[in-house]
Amino acid sequence: MFTSRGPTLRELAVQALSSVERGYDLLAPKFDLTPFRTPDRILDETAEALRPLGPFRDGLDVCCGTGAGGRVLRALCRERAVGVDFSAGMLHEARRAHPGAVLVRADARALPFRPVFDLAVSFGAFGHFLPRERPGLFAQVHSALLPGGVFAFPVGAPPHFGTLPYWAMLGFDTVMRVRNRVWRPGFVMYYRTFPLVEVLAELRRTGFDVELTPLEGLGRRPDGTPRCAVVVARRRA
């Protein structure tokens, strides 16, 4: 899962025992060498799924990290592509990788934007928000979008019960819950706290019309269900 140039086990342990912000500041220089970085294939498939919904003018990458999601915005938006993240270390790496990118340090739970964007995306960040925080997060994105603007993010199919990925995700979340009971500061990162049915309902309550589009380029599982889909939430006029 990790290359020889990626973070060492000790570095990962230090990150896991830090706060979320400090942990990502520490991990930032090697983040793109880890499996936590969203693969280009998912980014490109997401861009292709969103292309027919455009044209878009201004885009926002929520929790942009080192800037990988900017790849989608640059492919779809004619004017600005803005990234926002609360980790100074991740933004530093994003500026190094993407000179001239518009990057803002801010908490996604308190976005400093007026409704000026017609597209917002996010990749791989929702595990850092507790379920009780999701409605507020979605409301912040909603407030940054123009009427009719689109909020989109990919979601992978949940692993089937009893499979190795199922037990791996359950084990990781269990370890993190124990860690957060006995160690401070907390590090919020869970894989099983983002159930799609609840998420879609929360988006609708926030004021979005929601669709789910399979990313066919990523294939289907043996039972015929898509391996990945993109949630397309459009702010109601």
UniProtKB/TrEMBL annotation:
Gene3D superfamilies, per the entry: Vaccinia Virus protein VP39
InterPro entries in alphabetical order: Methyltransf_25, Methyltransf_Superfamily, SAM-dependent_MTases_sf
Molecular functions (GO terms): methyltransferase activity
SUPFAM superfamilies assigned to the protein according to its UniProt record, in alphabetical order: S-adenosyl-L-methionine-dependent methyltransferases
Keywords: Methyltransferase, Transferase
Pfam families reported in the protein's UniProt record: Methyltransf_25
Domain Methyltransferase: 60-149
Superkingdom of source: Bacteria
GO biological-process terms attached to the record: methylation
PANTHER family xrefs: METHYLTRANSFERASE, N6-ADENOSINE-METHYLTRANSFERASE TMT1A
Record's protein name: SAM-dependent methyltransferase
Protein species of origin: Streptomyces spongiicola
